[in-house]
Design goal:
single chain; 255 residues; alpha/beta; TIM Barrel; eight-stranded parallel beta barrel; 12 helices; binds 1,3-dihydroxyacetonephosphate
């Protein structure tokens, strides 16, 4: 049985001040939370402050992206080691906004995932089809390509340790979440490919979470699906009450 995994992707929202205020308030609300993994992914500038604010609590911290090199002349980039030093235990890799707006490819996702694991950061690897791809019935083929290329060369043990976020691009920020049937089908497919390509243990242990317009009022119908292990939440994670409610409902649904 996989522990529910609920992560907040704040994207380019919140100053250091706002992020730390959120983290302190949120920490107080979820202080007794057991049986759930909770992660906050603030902008880089707020990472250290948020990590300090949630130290010794059930809440962990993630970067939203990273470069695959350890250091070098890469203006504007941040390495896995730097994220780790700032207090991150996780890093989001290959979010669809980065793929679409910043030319991220399956090949760069793979290099980043390898580098993150090498630095003992847990990757949250994002995959998912666009609306055009879904309408052309290419969803499962797109997921296959993203999994195969993005996780290329990883061992079964490494895949067992990581998090895959299925985020259909058409459901992100649109208020239109995937139906339980759509999410269930995609998640079951991802799980079966993990089993086929990385082995039974990897498939059983890897967290496959859903992202795209997750809210307090739709988390239950998604988290009860057998292959949905949690959520990557954008908009609704910016509000302490809404995000805490999503965490609470995930825990209730899991028992
Ligand atoms: P929304 O929850 O705002 O749709 O964003 C989802 C997302 O992109 C999380 O990474």
């Amino acid at each position: 049985m996989r522990t529910p995994f609920i992560a907040a992707n704040w994207k380019m929202f919140k100053t250091v001040h706002d992020a730390v205020v959120f983290a302190k308030e949120f920490r107080a609300v979820v202080k007794e939370a057991t049986g759930v993994e909770i992660v906050l992914a603030p902008p880089f500038t707020a990472l250290h402050g948020v990590a300090e604010a949630v130290r010794n609590s059930p809440v962990a911290v993630a970067g939203q992206d990273m470069h695959w090199e350890r250091e070098g002349a890469f203006t504007g980039e941040i390495s896995a080691g730097m994220l780790k030093e700032a207090g991150a235990e996780f890093v989001i890799i290959g979010h669809s906004e980065r793929r679409r707006l910043f030319n991220e490819t399956d090949a760069t996702v793979n290099r980043k995932a390898v580098a993150a694991l090498g630095a003992e950061l847990t990757p949250i690897v994002c995959i998912g089809e666009t609306l055009e791809e879904r309408e052309r019935s290419e969803t499962l083929a797109v997921l296959d390509r993203q999994i195969k290329a993005g996780l290329d060369g990883l061992t079964g043990d490494q895949v067992a340790s990581l998090v895959i976020a299925y985020e259909p691009v058409w459901a992100i920020g649109t208020g239109r979440n995937a139906t339980p049937q759509q999410a269930g089908e995609a998640h079951a497919h991802i799980r079966s490919r993990l089993r086929q390509w990385f082995g039974a243990a990897a498939a059983d242990q890897c967290h496959v979470i859903y992202g795209g317009s997750v809210k307090p009022d739709n988390i239950h119908e998604l988290i009860v699906l057998p292959d949905v292990d949690g959520a990557l939440v954008g908009g609704a994670s910016l509000d302490v009450r809404a995000f805490a409610e999503i965490v609470a409902r995930s825990r209730q649904s899991a028992v």
